[in-house]
Amino acid sequence: MKEIPLQLSLSQTQRSRLRAALEKLQDLASKSTASVTVADTIPVNHEDGILKGHGTSEFNEEVVATVCGVVERVNKLVYVRTLRARYIPEVGDIIVGRVLEIAPKRWRLEINFSQDAVLMLSSMNLPDGIQRRRTAVDELNMRSIFEENDVVCAEVRGFQHDGSLQLQARSQKYGKLERGQLLSVPSYLVKRRKQHFHHLEKYGVDLILGCNGFIWVGEHVEPKDNEMVEDHQKQEEFTPLETRQHICRIANSIRLLSALGFNLSADKIVETAEASMFSNIAIKDILGAEFCVETAETELKRRVSKRRS
Amino acid sequence: MVGLSIGEKKFIQGGISQDLRADGRQRRDFRPISVEIGVIPQANGSARVKLGATDVIASVKAELGRPSSLQPDKGKAAIFVDCSPTAAPIFEGRGGEELSTELSLALQRCLLGGKSGAGAGIDLSSLVIVEGKVCWDLYIDGLVVSSDGNLLDALAAAIKAALSNTGLPKVSVDLAAAKDDQPEVDLSDEEFLQFDTSGIPVVITLTKIGRHYIVDATSEEESQMSSAVSVSVNRRGQICGMTKRGGAGLDPSVILDMISVAKSISQQFMSVLDSEIAAAEAAEADDA
């Protein structure tokens, strides 16, 4: 589940094209934000009296940044929001995580946060859909719901008093994810939106963009109540080849977009996958040099035209 | 080691039986490879090879030494591999030791040949300067910087690139100075002899998952393997060494099949690697 850096053997022209496109993209972006690197001075008005927040320090009576990121100001507080940091949860976020261990009445999940998240047995619907008190028997059968290493989709419920992060999965759309692959991208590339579950009907693919940067691409499954029984018969057969091709194409599009550092939205991902299909590019060549340059140039054109209109 | 849920394991196995792996490759496709040479200025030769998210560095250090009395007409070469704790948390402390030893042994078997030095990919007799008196000792070190499967192939490729980057200083020996003791040697600062790498094999690892086998497995795929066979093949298509990992047994006919597949793949891989090394050499010459 490593983030795949692009290994491009670019030709001379491709390299200059890519560099030009990325530079122009940077020019378009940098006008709005005050991004700093380590040891950059942050301009402040000392007369107002300021509070130095995270990622800042005082040096020779100037406020300097100690991390790379974007300067944020909230009233008197000045801090630097770091890039490429770990995921910072907010209540209501939809996340994808992996079960690390089963503890009494709870599962512990890895969600790319600075600590493990907790999913209580009481804050999820039982597979048979009954709302009732969780008994000791339920507690003993927790492994039949989620095992170690299972990929689980859930929602951030909130922080407890002791600072631990609580999750909930009180709906049929949450739960175990099977038959697909989990990708990990920097979490800042996934913006919070209204919709994080996407069923791409044309391809029969489910796409879940977790706010924590874990992205699930898998075969579409209808949410249903009592899946426990028939589960085991269904496991024997593999994903159909055609669906698998779509899954791999979409997954590779996500890998490419995240390597180029573009925000990930379902539209953008599908657009990239369709562009690759349109120009007859093999699935493994999506990560190749030519398509990478083309994608960067398309994105540049899109942003330029958006700016004009 | 990566933990995978049952659903993901099934997905990987299904992909391999349908000849479409998770990143869109087919069973016999390598990931894109990139080669950088001359990354360690202190070494006589060095190279860094990236194969997808796998990242390894190899360096070659040459020292003047004395050939062993049993083989006065041959130089010495030794291979060591180290797994950096930055690659995976389990490599911290002594955690990577087992894997390091396994990798070094496999590479020694694949590149150095038997104890007698016969069948070696690295021509040890070219390392002799004065028979029985002076020879080059080659210390070949591999470092795993980031691990995403198929370490052996990447290390072998890095060693091949590092050796092609190696220049051994020209040595002039004054035999008259001392008859029975070590003769006096003089190293040239300007003239370097290029190391002949045409005979150095590449290693192709075939990982068996389910009923099929694949090349260049990622660590996710490796976690599903039943066994893996690494074959080292030289430019002429000859087998220089073999190692098998994994607990499950293999039918002899499967092994023969694997060897012939490895042989045909090795020729493609060798030409890709050669062109990457040439490109890296050109890039380095541009920088200088």
Automatic annotation (TrEMBL), chain A:
PANTHER family: EXOSOME COMPLEX COMPONENT RRP4 (PTHR21321:SF4), PNAS-3 RELATED (PTHR21321)
Protein name, as recorded: S1 motif domain-containing protein
GO cellular component, one term: nuclear exosome (RNase complex)
Pfam families recorded: KH_6, S1_RRP4
Residues annotated as domain S1 motif: 90-170
Family designation: Belongs to the RRP4 family.
UniProt-annotated location(s): Nucleus
An example Gene Ontology molecular-function term: RNA binding
Key word Zinc-finger present: no
Principal subcellular localisation of the protein: nucleus
Keywords: Exosome, Nucleus, RNA-binding, rRNA processing
Matching InterPro entries: Exosome_RNA_bind1/RRP40/RRP4, KH_dom_type_1, KH_dom_type_1_sf, NA-bd_OB-fold, S1_domain, S1_RRP4
SMART domains tied to this protein: S1 (SM00316)
Keyword Nucleus recorded: yes
UniProt-listed GO biological process terms: CUT catabolic process; exonucleolytic trimming to generate mature 3'-end of 5.8S rRNA from tricistronic rRNA transcript (SSU-rRNA, 5.8S rRNA, LSU-rRNA); nuclear polyadenylation-dependent rRNA catabolic process; poly(A)-dependent snoRNA 3'-end processing; TRAMP-dependent tRNA surveillance pathway; U4 snRNA 3'-end processing
Taxonomy, superkingdom: Eukaryota
UniProtKB/TrEMBL annotation, chain B:
Primary residence: cytoplasm
GO MF, one example: mRNA 3'-UTR AU-rich region binding
InterPro entries in the cross-refs: ExoRNase_PH_dom1, ExoRNase_PH_dom2, ExoRNase_PH_dom2_sf, Exosome_comp_Rrp42_subfam, PNPase/RNase_PH_dom_sf, Ribosomal_Su5_D2-typ_SF
Localization annotation: Cytoplasm; Nucleus, Nucleolus
Superkingdom as given in the UniProt entry: Eukaryota
GO cellular component: cytoplasmic exosome (RNase complex); nuclear exosome (RNase complex); nucleolus
A GO biological process held by the record: U1 snRNA 3'-end processing
Pfam families xrefs: RNase_PH, RNase_PH_C
Keywords assigned: Cytoplasm, Exosome
Domain Exoribonuclease phosphorolytic: 29-169, 199-264
Similarity comment: family membership: Belongs to the RNase PH family.
Record's protein name: Ribosomal RNA-processing protein 42
Species this protein is from: Asparagus officinalis (Garden asparagus)
Lineage per the UniProt record: Eukaryota, Viridiplantae, Streptophyta, Embryophyta, Tracheophyta
